[in-house]
Specification:
The protein has one domain: Rossmann fold. It has a five-stranded parallel sheet, sandwiched between helices. The chain starts with 5 loop residues before the first strand and ends with a helix. By secondary structure, the chain is α/β, with parallel strands linked by helices. 42% of the residues are buried. The structure holds adenosine-5'-triphosphate and magnesium ion. The site of magnesium ion has 4 residues, from α1.
Length: 231
């Protein structure tokens, strides 16, 4: 059994993660590589149900730890049902957000003690850590303005063809998008901090550049760090 590559996209709201995850998937598929494009929270039928609950803008106030456990539950199912089987088949798994988002949203900028999140990550992620994490960096104001304009995100678990389907997103900001600017500025700091602490795994790309330019930076990171090792 050949292990595939596990690539994650991280960063604040509206930075361009979904756009770039999709573009990378399409480019790799154009080279006849087997790709699974997926996302968090969600990515498996059970986890997508939890996603609806977690992101519901009408959800009443609840304990931060309860929320962190929901994320962990969704991730455990996503890993078992989708990510590990795909990697086991030698596929390239591209995941739009993963455990760094939990570290930052719930820990660094949130209300759950980082040591609790570390323990959950050990239990849930185990050794299925990303081989490469692309941090799409953008000032919070710009990302939020873009997110407010956006109408769709990819939701494909495993694209059946070279085209990745899109799904209407709706008009309401989700629970996290709706938080104040200070929260979003802290998210940005947190993602940059992770990239500084784990330079072997993480690459920062400038989300303010055009989508083509960002895609080029992503492709350079992927080919330099992963595909050359693979060939
Ligand atoms: N480099 C870019 N320049 C300008 N606009 C962009 C760029 N990349 C993406 N966009 C647009 O910005 C909006 C947000 O992009 P996208 O949905 O990819 O961000 P995201 O990081 O996935 O956001 P979220 O965290 O909310 O899921 C979309 O309307 C997209 O078309
Ligand atoms: Mg997105």
């Amino acid at each position: 059994m050949t292990a595939g590559w596990f690539i994650t996209f991280e960063g604040g709201e509206g930075s361009g993660k979904s756009t770039q995850a999709k573009r990378l998937a399409e480019r790799l598929m154009a080279q006849s590589r087997a790709v699974t494009l997926t996302r968090e929270p969600g990515g498996s039928p059970f986890a997508e149900r939890l996603r609806l609950l977690i992101l519901d803008p009408g959800l009443e106030k609840h304990a931060p730890l309860a929320e962190a456990l929901l994320f962990a539950s969704a991730r455990a199912d996503h890993l078992e049902q989708v990510i590990r089987p795909a990697l086991g088949e030698g596929r390239i798994v591209i995941c739009d957000r993963f455990s760094d988002s939990t570290r930052i949203y719930q820990g660094f900028a949130g209300h759950v003690e980082p040591r609790l999140l570390e323990a959950l990550e050990l239990i849930v992620v185990q050794n299925t850590k990303p081989d490469l994490t692309i941090v799409v960096d953008i000032p919070a104001e710009i990302g939020l303005a873009r997110a407010a304009l956006r109408l769709s995100v990819p939701t494909a678990v495993t694209p059946p063809s070279e085209k990745v389907p899109k799904q209407p997103r709706g008009l309401l900001a989700d629970r996290f998008e709706a938080r104040d600017l200070g929260f979003h500025k802290r998210l940005r700091e947190g993602f940059l901090e992770i990239a500084r602490l784990e330079p072997q795994r993480c690459v920062i790309v400038d989300g303010q550049k055009s989508a083509d330019e960002v895609a080029h930076e992503v492709w350079t990171a992927v080919t330099t760090r992963l595909l050359t090792e693979a060939s």
